[in-house]
Design goal:
The structure is a single chain. The longest helix is centred in the middle third of the chain and has 27 residues, at 77-103. The chain is mostly helical. The two termini are 30 Å apart. A hairpin with a 2-residue loop joins strand 2 and strand 3. The chain has a 3-stranded antiparallel β-sheet with strand order 1-3-2. Helix 4 crosses helix 7 and helix 8 packs antiparallel against helix 9 (198-215). Helix content is 71%, strand content 5%.
């Protein structure tokens, strides 16, 4: 999400930020139960900020009510389909805007180089058969593209979509056939941005997300 001041340690905002980080990192599995008591002990805080943070996660759709707490929300096949349609359009727009900024000379060379380096990190994690590291590196790359777009409202929308998908991304990147394909797709997106070609960048991003949607394995599959 767009940058904001660091939350006060132990506050509901700090707990919420940490839980969102865990969701984005794929540290929770679909259906996993989360309780106030366990989370409070893990984070060394009282149960009140945990309760408030879990309430925000309920609003975000990242968790659902469960016995004695909440459970990590799992996407059905239909929900995943809807989400990937939205994600495809948002990511295509982000790539187009990033390429437009490059064309207009508003992206620093270091920013483009950082995108290439992010692709390299995804490829290295995939080749190491480390699904968790692959998922984290993949998210970091997509976040970098979102930031390069220069639109904080678009970036916020993307973060919400990414977090909903992150809990099952690890399992999907463990598929060697899909994992091998993503590096080529990522490089096509970055090539379009580097060339300052919004159409090429957007089309590559949309094609990548559509392919990801086809490869995605929802919980009810």
């Amino acid at each position: 999400m767009p940058s904001s001041p660091d939350p006060r340690p132990g506050s509901a905002q700090a707990v919420y930020a940490e839980l969102r980080r865990r969701f984005a990192a794929g540290e929770y599995a679909p259906g996993q139960r989360l309780t106030e008591a366990v989370l409070a002990a893990e984070l060394s805080v009282s149960r009140t900020p945990v309760r408030q943070a879990l309430g925000r996660l309920l609003t975000d759709g990242l968790v659902v009510p469960a016995a004695r707490g909440v459970a990590v929300a799992a996407l059905t096949g239909a929900e995943a389909g809807h989400l990937f349609v939205l994600r495809g359009r948002l990511e295509a727009l982000a790539a187009e805007l990033a390429a437009t900024r490059q064309k207009e000379g508003r992206l620093a060379p270091a920013e483009i180089d950082a995108l290439d380096e992010a692709v390299d990190r995804v490829e290295a994690a995939v080749r190491a058969h480390d699904a968790r590291a692959s998922a984290q590196a993949n998210l970091a790359l997509h976040r970098a593209i979102g930031a390069a777009a220069g639109n904080p409202f678009l970036e916020d929308a993307l973060h919400r979509v990414w977090d909903r998908i992150a809990v099952t991304t690890v399992a999907n990147l463990d598929d060697p056939h899909w994992a091998d394909a993503i590096t080529e797709q990522h490089r096509a997106i970055i090539a379009g941005i580097r060339a300052g070609d919004p159409q090429a960048a957007g089309e590559a991003a949309l094609a990548h997300i559509q392919a990801a949607g086809r490869a995605y394995r929802p919980l009810d599959h």
